[in-house]
Amino acid sequence: MEIAILGGTGPQGSGLALRLAKAGKNVIIGSRSAERAADIARKLEADHRGLTGKIFGEDNISAVKRAHEFVFLAVPFSGHAATLTEISPYIGDKCLIDLVVPLAQGNPRQMDMPPEGSATEQALAILGPDATVVGALHNVSATVLADLDHGINCDILVCGNKLAESKKVCELIREFGTEAYYCGPAENARCIESLTSILIRLNISKAVPFSHAGIRISHREKHGD
Amino acid sequence: MEIAILGGTGPQGSGLALRLAKAGKNVIIGSRSAERAADIARKLEADHRGLTGKIFGEDNISAVKRAHEFVFLAVPFSGHAATLTEISPYIGDKCLIDLVVPLAQGNPRQMDMPPEGSATEQALAILGPDATVVGALHNVSATVLADLDHGINCDILVCGNKLAESKKVCELIREFGTEAYYCGPAENARCIESLTSILIRLNISKAVPFSHAGIRISHREKHGD
Question: Which of A44, A60, A99, A195 could serve as a FRET partner for A144 with CA atoms 20 to 30 Å apart?
Answer without folding.
Answer: A60
